[in-house]
Task: structure prediction
Amino acid sequence: MKRQFKLLSVLPALLVLTLSAPAGAAGKEDGVGPNIPAPVKGEQCVEDTDVMRRNHMKYLKSHRDETLREGIRTKQYSLKECLECHVPPKDEAQASQTEGEHFCKSCHQYAAVRVDCFECHATRPEKSAMFHPLVTPGMQTMKDVHQPDSTELLNNFAENQNNTGAIQ
Amino acid sequence: MSDSKHTDQARRDFLNNSAKLAAGVTLASGVMLYGVAHARPAEQPATSEVRWGMLVDTNKCAKGCDACVTGCENENGWGQGSNDEQKSNANQKAQWIRKVELRNTATGHVHSLPMMCQHCETPPCVDVCPTGASMKRADGIVLVDKHICIGCRYCMMACPYKARSFVHEALEDQRAHAPRGKGTVEACTFCVHKLDAGEGTTACAEACNTEGHKAIIVGDLKDPNSEIAQAVAEYATTQVRADLGLNTGMRYRGI
Result:
């Protein structure tokens, strides 16, 4: 038990150290570290990269309870939205999910962290969303204009974007 | 030079699209108003001001039709068309909704109706769950929190409606809005993802309407203006096993 705790306390540091490759780097240039696929779309994550590396599990865990138990469906820390940006959709070719080519899995595999999210959750988005409502400049501008009550509108918009074919 | 031209074109397209998008908001706002007015904002939790309910008119429910079952399968990725439980025997497989035919032995009259989670006000599955995974949302939807479900299946035994299933095998290619996996219990979710998105209906009701039977009404039992509230006020409706006093969200007409 003690050993486990020790291991747990070392892990985040280990992750940060090993993942200090430049953001968006598609692959290990220096031959060290996991092979992290580059994001499919979006210019920046919902939080800064270092914050996400350290805290993504906390965000996801808190969001899952809010969503399932209370029905809060915000998109910022939603696992589904992670995949929207980081994993190509079903209709696009991608290497097997089991061989460490998946955005989440590649890193966890490298760090020897077993996550069971994908025992139940879909490993890739169903269809391509052309932009992420939270981070695309166009959407950000709209959000600023419609503040503060536009989240719903934006979310609806993000979902209907395939029909509008707007900003990419 | 060609690069800068390219950039200019990209910039132009971007601005053009932005303009279209902005126009889209204005144009679409009228269209979306209905949805926005009725949908709960994403950041607000479900409240007990709403009680989701479903009314099945068994007189309209056609014998031999299983459109609601197929609709649910397609929406939630179980049963036919999915890669569910290849090795399990047929009666172990997941079943979120099923068609039941009841025959009155005295008259020979046959009823047909869909049977699924009845979304009880006082659900026995929630009572018996040792981990708190079986839960009822504020708006009356009974769900399984698969994050903490240990697969003990007490809830399956407690449910008087045989509404829950257990997943025995590892699954792949789940629908993004309907996570399901080995070792957890699952059941009808009242298409909670659709309701939360403000669609106000379920896959089974949609499928039934498409088929033209219109036997299923979905709505808020607490909203006196909703179609379902007016229907239950006007017609005699029944809860299955009403003697158990569970006050189900599912109601039936004509049984």
Remarks:
- Chain B has a mean pLDDT of 88.
- Residues 242 and 248 of chain B are 8 Å apart (CA to CA).
- The first strand of chain B starts at residue 52 and ends at 57.
